[in-house]
Amino acid sequence: MDEQEEYTGRNWVLEDWEKLAAYAWENYQNKGRGAVVLDVRKGLRINDEPAPALHYWAKGGQQIPMLGKEVEEMVDSYDPNGGFILGVLTPPENIMIDFAPTPDGRLSPKEAFDQGHGITYLDIDTSNIPDTPVH
Prior knowledge:
This protein is of the alpha+beta class. The chain contains six helices and six strands. The protein has a four-stranded mixed beta sheet with strand order 4-1-5-6.
């Protein structure tokens, strides 16, 4: 198994690219630069399938600086219409973060948003589940 196959959430992201891309664009427009974060630690399920909690960590918040200078530079320099910064939180308190470029033949984040894609069935109330800062 190669490294990309082991990347938690990768297939889920590709399957729901337009929804996540639209979510990233909408949050970029409303909150500024940041990262889409899938939290697979919480054990949420939709239709009996694992479903990560979804967050947007804006650059002005406290999470991005805690991830280090390299991540801050990534957030400062990515092209928001060319993809989005994706973080995956895994047990116990690990995070993988990278730029997720728009795959060939798929809509850009702006196009996905403009065409009405977005998070619908993934809109779960996670307000009662506290975010855990990653150190």
